[in-house]
Amino acid sequence: MIIVIFAYFFLAIVAVGDKYLLTGSLNPKTYTFYAGAFGAIVFLLIPFVNFYIPSPAIILVSFLAGAVFVLATFIFYSALEDFEVSRVVPAVGGLMPIFTLVLVFLLFEDANLLKVSDFLAFALLVLGTFLITKGVPAKISLKSFLMAGVSAFLFSAYFVLSKYLYNLLPFWSAIILIRFGAFVSAMFFIFAADVRAEIFGKRPSSMNIRTAALFGANQTLAAAGVILQNFSIAVAGTSYLAIINATEGIRYVFVFIFSIIISLKFPNILKEEMSRKIIIQKLIAIFLIVGGLGALAL
Q1: Three-class SS of residue 46?
Q2: pLDDT value at residue 35
Q3: Quick one: pLDDT at residue 158?
Q4: How far is CA 84 from CA 12, 73, 144, in A?
Q5: Of 72, 7, 1, 73, nearest to 35 (Cα)?
Q6: What value does the mean pLDDT take over residues 246-263?
Q7: Contact 147, 78 (CB under 8 A)
Q8: How remote is the C-alpha of 169 from its chain's centroid?
Q9: CB 71 within 8 A of CB 154
Q10: Burial bucket for residue 115 (CB in 10 Å: 0-12, 13-18, 19+)
Q11: Which of 31, 97, 179, 215 has a beta carbon 3.0–4.6 Å from 246's, enabling a disulfide?
Q12: For the chain, what percent of residues have pLDDT higher than 90?
């Protein structure tokens, strides 16, 4: 739980940075390309972590996990571009733990039924995540729900494939192979004309020196968060994989706090819409999330 909380603390900072960067002229394909390319930094660890090359079949699964992650990220960013955040994020946050729970019990023989307290924690965390990410009001369309559902399913499949690999390989070998699969998959976006135009300067882009520096810092924190999150996946029991997904609400608690601070200090950078109804809803959500974590801890 401590590892997960630190992971989502870092990823919350990344989420605020993503929100700022995606409000510029970077489109989802270009952003996914840069994020996948930057993930190659993990290759620098190969000489220091006793990297192990497994069988071709395991390498193929690793590449598949990386490709699924890139596809899920692209669909998620596309949904954020086309629809309001208050429609997309609650749907992804609420559906992903449910998909993961189903996939784990369908695909893993060592998955055991959770205790009553675990199911209570799961329900509280999912409900809290939904509430803290839901805007007031937020009417969801069929198209936005379908895009969020596909993204949530793919993220769940990525979690399940990652857990499968961590059960077979040393942690660092597995995460390096997965990130390599993500890197190769992200490179396919170079074939998109609009991505090439932004990268090679054929049309105006917001990726100036300042934006590049912010993007680099943001992706460094993302790497730290992803490594901690994946380490929690590796060490947790298979049955608890869905609960790790459900604790995503912790990240949104941090995002909510950071957004308020930034919107008060720097309203020109990030403006967070606040009302009495929204604040009450967020506080109820935080109470549910804390209750879920308490049920797990006890």
Answers
A1: helix
A2: 76
A3: 94
A4: 19, 16, 9
A5: 73
A6: 80
A7: yes
A8: 23
A9: yes
A10: exposed
A11: 97
A12: 17
Residue 268 one-letter amino acid: N
Q: Which residues of 152-187 are buried (b: 16+ CB within 10 A; e: fewer)?
A: bbbbbbbbbbbbbbbeebebbbbbbbbbbbbbebbe
For 16, the token pair is 């605020």
pLDDT band at 154 (very low <50, low <70, confident <90, very high): very high
Please give the Cα distance from 150 to 96 (Å, whole number). 10
Q: 97-136, pLDDT tens digit by residue?
A: 889 888 988 888 766 667 777 888 888 888 888 787 766 5
Average pLDDT over residues 74-99: 77
pLDDT of amino acid 282: 81
Q: CA-CA distance, 163 to 109, in Å (whole number)?
A: 13
Tokens of 169: 């390989």
Q: Which tokens sit at 7?
A: 């992971």
Q: Rounding to the nearest 10 degrees, give the CA dihedral for residues 150, 155, 159, 161.
A: 60
* 237 alpha-carbon distance from chain centroid: 20
Looking at per-residue confidence, does 269 or 242 come out higher? Answer: 242
Helix (H), strand (E), coil (C) string for 50-80: CCCCCCHHHHHHHHHHHHHHHHHHHHHHHHH
- Find tokens 């290759």 and name the residue: 43
**Residues 133 and 15 sit within 8 Å (Cβ to Cβ):** no
Q: What is the DSSP letter of 141?
A: P
User: Which helix or strand (DSSP H or E) is residue 16 part of?
Assistant: helix 2-22
Q: For residue 191, give every residue at least 6 positions away whose Cβ sits within 8 Å of its Cβ, in sequence order, or none.
A: none
Closest CA to 280 of 259, 256, 296, 261: 256
